[in-house]
Design brief:
elongated; disordered C terminus; Endonuclease Iii, domain 2; mainly alpha
Length: 225
């Protein structure tokens, strides 16, 4: 039985370099966290900003403990909780402001419910959610990929994606987001899978090798520069 999915079949057909990466990394295995609402996913993302995972999770554990009857607090409960109490869990003042804005925008419908968000296309979701204080395009793209399982998201501002691109395509310098975006047009409608493989390459999964031909050309140009 073939281990290829629709995503990997497309990537292998359209891009010989990606075909090699797929062969080296193995089957596409994106792990989804679909049980979290958009509000919870973004609240957790705010907690993780500029912190190591362990520190952020400790803060979240203390924050959630403020609401013992809930698996995760509701927007109205966050707004009804004093800043001082939230601050005691480890959130900075800037993140408290972001949490409160997120909660307010969840109540007014800017941040859609789990059911409503599935009716929106990717760009509509991005446009709405970046209105929340402290939430940028990259954060929303992570929600699209890991919570909604959208198949055609290419987070070109992500360091791992660009670094993976640099590695597998043999670039001497880090590509710009615009360069990755332009090149990635060929991966549509499965750019999420391409991003997943680029992340694996950036992490050094199975010793991903750079493209020899591209690397040779780049080295030749550099020697004549």
């Amino acid at each position: 039985m073939s281990r290829h999915t629709a995503e990997t079949r497309h990537l292998c057909k359209i891009d010989p370099v990606m075909k090699r990466v797929v062969a080296e990394v193995g089957p596409y295995a994106l792990a989804l966290r679909a049980s979290r609402s958009p509000f919870e996913a973004l609240a957790r993302a705010i907690a993780h900003q500029q912190l190591h995972n362990k520190a952020a999770e400790s803060i979240l554990t203390r924050f959630i403990a403020l609401f013992p009857r809930r698996r995760f607090p509701q927007p109205g409960e966050v707004l009804a909780t004093t800043s001082e109490l939230i601050r005691s869990t480890g959130f900075s003042q800037a993140k408290i402001a972001a949490l409160r804005d997120l909660a307010a925008k969840a109540l007014d419908g800017t941040v859609p419910t789990s059911r409503a968000i599935r009716l929106l296309d990717d760009e509509a979701i991005i446009e709405r959610l970046i209105e929340v204080r402290g939430i940028g395009r990259w954060t929303v793209e992570m929600l699209l990929i890991f919570h909604l399982g959208r198949p055609d998201v290419l987070p070109v501002d992500d360091f791992g994606v660009r670094n993976g691109f640099r590695i597998v395509y043999g670039h001497l310098e880090m590509p710009t987001p615009k360069q990755v975006l332009h090149f990635g047009e060929r991966w549509k409608p499965y750019r999420t899978a391409a991003a997943w493989y680029l992340w694996r390459a950036s992490e050094g999964a199975k010793g991903i090798r750079p493209t020899k031909l591209v690397l040779k050309k780049a080295t030749k140009r550099a020697s004549h520069g």
